[in-house]
Design brief:
heterodimer, A: MetI-like fold, 14 helices, B: mainly alpha, two-stranded antiparallel ribbon, globular
C-alpha cells in the first residue's frame, strides 16, 4: 500500500539511471503537463506579485502592465494587517474547519465501523451513502437553502418533535446561519471520510485481532490498540484532504447565505470573491491572495516534512 | 464474528438513520422538482414531503415553455447553460487526461518530470480564489473570458493533478512484461505506449476520465468568475433563476438542480471502486 512517504519519495527521487534515448521520449511526454503548470503557476504568480504592490483596479482604464503608475509600495500589505474583516473571515474559516472536519471524521469513522462486516444490502447502502459527495456542491447549497427556509422542512421536522409550529429563520440569524452552512458541509463530506476510512479498516489484517480475541480482549480494546494504530497513515490522509478542501469552502456556503447576513458567514474565499467582484480593488486582492499562498506553502512544506518522516508502513 | 442480536439491531438501526439523513435533503429537492407552483413554498400544515399534484411543468419551464401561473417566461432557457457545462467539462477532461496520462507515463517509465508530483499537489492545495486575479486578467487578455473553451482550459489545469496521480498509480501497477516483450520484438518505445499500453489501460483511462469529468462538472466558483453571459454554466445560471415578481423560482431551480446532480451521481457510482484512489491522489487503493 502506498503512503504519504511514498509520495514524497517519488517527489524527491530523480531516477537518472535510464538510457538516454528513452529520456528524450520521457521529456516529450511530460511536456504538456509542464507547460500547463508553467502557464498557471509562474507567470500568474509574478503578475500577482507585481499587481499586489499597486492600487490597480480594472476600472482604472489602464492595462495591468501599467499598474506601476499606481505604485503604493507595501501599502496593501500594511492595510491587510489592519483589515479586521479579513482577519475575522480567516478566523471564521478556521472555526468552520475545526468544527466540520472532526465531526465528519468521527461520523465517517463510526459509519465505517458499522460497515466493516458483511450484512444483507451492504453494497447497495454503501452506494447510497456516497451520494452526497457526488452531488454538485452548488446544487447541494441550493438544497440546503430550501431546507433551512423558515417555512421549510427542517423547521417542519423540528415542529414534529416539539409539538408546536417552529419558525426559526436559520439563514437570517448570524449564529444559526453559520451552523446551517456547517451542517451542509458535514452532510456533503462525511461520505468522503467514510469512504477512505472504510477502505483503511478493511485493509487491517484480521489475524492479530483474532489472536487478541482469543486472549479475551474486548472489541473496544482491540479497536484502540490494534486497529487504530494501523490506520494512522490513512487517517492522516483523510484528515489532510478535508482540511485542505474545507479551507477553500465556497460553493455551498455562498449559495446558501452569500456570506451573510452581513458578514456572519464570510469565509476567506467568500471575502476575496466579494472584494474582487464588488469592490474591484484588485491590487489589494492580489496582496491577500499572495499572503494566503505564501502561508499555505510554508504550512504545507512543514506538514509534508513532518507527517511523512519515515515510519513503519501501515 | 458472532455478536449479540442486540448489537446487530443497534447496528442496523444506526445505518438506517445515516441512510435517512443522507437521503432526506436529496428527496426534498427531487420532490420540489415535480411540485406545481402552488406547492413550492407551502408551509405549516400545507407543507408536503411529496407533491400532491406531480407535474413536469418545472422542467418544461426551464426549457422555455412560458407558464401562465408564473406570469414570467425566461428570456434565456437552460439549454445553453447545459451545453456550456457539457462542453467545458468534457474538453477540460480531455486536456487533463492527455497531459496527465502522458506525464504519468513519462514519470512511471522514464522518471521524467520528477518535479510534477509535488508541483501538482501544490496546485491542488491552493484555493482557486487565491490565483483568480491573474487568471481573470490573462483570460481577458487572451479573449477567453465567457467562452466554453476558456473554461475548458482552466478546468483542464485545475483537474490535471487528479488525472496525473490516478494514471500514475495505474501505470505503476501495470505489469511491464508485455511492454518489454514488444520492445524486444523491435517496436519503438512510443509505439509501445500508443499501440500496447494505452489499449491495455482502457478501463483505467475510462474511470479516471469519469472522475475528472465529475470534478469539472461540479465547478461553480471558476465559472462564476470567468463567464458572464453567453457561456454561463448550470450552477451559475441556476443562481439567476428568480424573478422580481415571484422571488425564488423554487421548482424551476430544483428541476435544474436535479438535471445537474444526476449525471455525476451515476458516474460516481459506476467508478466507485476507484474513488478512494482518485480522492487520495493514489495514496490508497482498494
Amino acid at each position: 500500500m502506498n503512503t504519504i512517504a511514498d509520495i514524497t519519495d517519488t517527489v524527491q527521487k530523480t531516477p537518472a539511471d535510464r538510457p538516454n534515448d528513452e529520456g528524450h521520449l520521457g521529456l516529450w511526454l511530460s511536456l504538456p503537463a509542464q507547460l500547463l503548470v508553467l502557464f498557471i503557476a509562474v507567470f500568474p504568480i509574478l503578475m500577482q506579485i507585481y499587481i499586489s504592490l499597486t492600487d490597480w483596479s480594472p476600472l482604472d482604464g489602464i492595462g495591468w502592465w501599467r499598474a506601476w503608475e499606481l505604485w503604493n509600495s507595501f501599502a496593501n500589505y500594511t492595510d491587510l494587517a489592519q483589515d479586521n474583516r479579513f482577519w475575522s473571515a480567516l478566523l471564521r474559516t478556521l472555526l468552520v474547519m475545526v468544527v466540520c472536519v472532526p465531526v465528519e471524521f468521527l461520523l465517517g469513522l463510526g459509519l465505517a465501523v458499522l460497515f466493516v462486516d458483511e450484512f444483507p444490502g451492504r453494497r447497495f447502502l454503501y452506494s447510497v451513502l456516497l451520494i452526497p459527495m457526488m452531488v454538485v456542491p452548488a446544487v447541494a447549497g441550493y438544497m440546503f437553502f430550501m431546507l433551512f427556509q423558515s417555512g421549510g422542512p427542517i423547521n417542519d421536522i423540528l415542529a414534529f418533535f416539539v409539538g408546536q409550529p417552529v419558525k426559526i429563520a436559520w439563514l437570517s440569524d448570524p449564529d444559526l446561519a453559520l451552523i446551517a452552512v456547517m451542517v451542509a458541509d458535514i452532510w456533503q463530506w462525511t461520505p468522503l471520510m467514510f469512504l477512505i476510512l472504510l477502505a483503511g479498516l478493511v485493509g487491517v489484517p484480521e489475524d492479530q485481532q483474532r489472536a487478541a480475541t482469543l486472549l479475551g480482549a474486548s472489541w473496544w480494546r482491540r479497536f484502540i490498540t490494534i486497529v487504530l494504530p494501523r490506520m494512522k497513515t490513512i487517517m492522516i490522509i483523510a484528515l489532510a484532504i478535508r482540511v485542505i478542501e474545507n479551507f477553500k469552502i465556497f460553493d455551498t456556503l455562498f449559495i446558501m447565505t452569500g456570506g451573510g447576513p452581513g458578514v456572519a458567514t464570510e469565509t476567506i474565499s467568500v471575502y476575496i470573491y466579494k472584494v474582487t467582484q464588488q469592490e474591484l480593488i484588485w491590487g489589494y486582492v492580489a496582496a491577500i491572495a499572495l499572503a494566503i499562498l505564501i502561508t499555505l506553502s510554508i504550512v504545507s512544506a512543514y506538514a509534508i516534512r513532518h507527517v511523512s518522516s519515515p515510519e513503519a508502513d501501515t | 464474528m458472532q455478536r449479540s442480536a442486540g448489537y446487530e439491531a443497534l447496528r442496523f438501526g444506526l445505518i438506517l438513520l445515516f441512510v435517512a439523513l443522507t437521503l432526506i435533503p436529496t428527496l426534498w429537492m427531487v420532490s420540489m422538482a415535480f411540485k406545481p407552483i402552488a406547492e413550492w413554498s407551502a408551509t405549516g400544515s400545507d407543507l408536503t414531503w411529496w407533491p400532491k399534484n406531480p407535474t413536469w411543468d418545472n422542467f418544461a419551464f426551464i426549457f422555455g415553455q412560458s407558464s401562465s401561473e408564473l406570469i414570467v417566461s425566461l428570456d434565456r432557457t437552460a439549454g445553453r447553460p447545459i451545453l456550456a457545462s457539457l462542453l467545458s467539462a468534457s474538453f477540460g477532461t480531455v486536456i487533463a487526461m492527455v497531459a496527465g496520462t502522458t506525464a504519468a507515463y513519462g514519470l512511471s517509465r522514464f522518471g521524467s518530470g520528477a518535479n510534477l508530483p509535488l508541483a501538482l499537489i501544490q496546485l491542488r492545495l491552493f484555493p482557486p480564489m487565491a490565483v483568480m486575479i491573474p487568471v481573470m486578467i490573462m483570460w481577458a487578455f487572451l479573449g477567453l473570458t465567457d467562452t466554453w473553451w476558456g473554461l475548458a482550459l482552466i478546468y483542464g489545469i485545475v483537474t490535471l493533478p487528479f488525472a496525473f496521480w490516478l494514471m500514475k498509480t495505474f501505470f505503476d501497477d501495470m505489469p511491464r512484461e508485455i511492454e518489454d516483450a514488444a520492445l524486444v520484438e523491435g517496436c519503438s518505445r512510443f509505439r509501445v505506449f500508443v499501440k500496447i499500453t494505452l489499449p491495455m489501460m482502457r478501463p483505467a483511462l475510462a474511470s479516471s476520465a469519469l472522475f475528472v469529468f465529475i470534478l469539472n462538472w461540479s465547478d461553480y466558483l471558476i465559472a462564476l468568475l470567468l463567464t458572464t453571459r453567453d457561456w454561463v454554466t448550470i450552477p451559475v445560471y441556476m443562481a439567476s433563476l428568480s424573478s422580481s415578481m415571484t422571488g425564488q423560482l423554487y421548482g424551476a431551480k430544483a428541476a435544474l438542480g436535479l438535471i445537474a446532480a444526476v449525471p455525476p451521481v451515476i458516474m460516481g457510482i459506476a467508478i466507485q471502486k476507484h474513488l478512494v484512489r482518485g480522492l487520495t491522489f493514489g495514496a490508497l487503493k482498494e
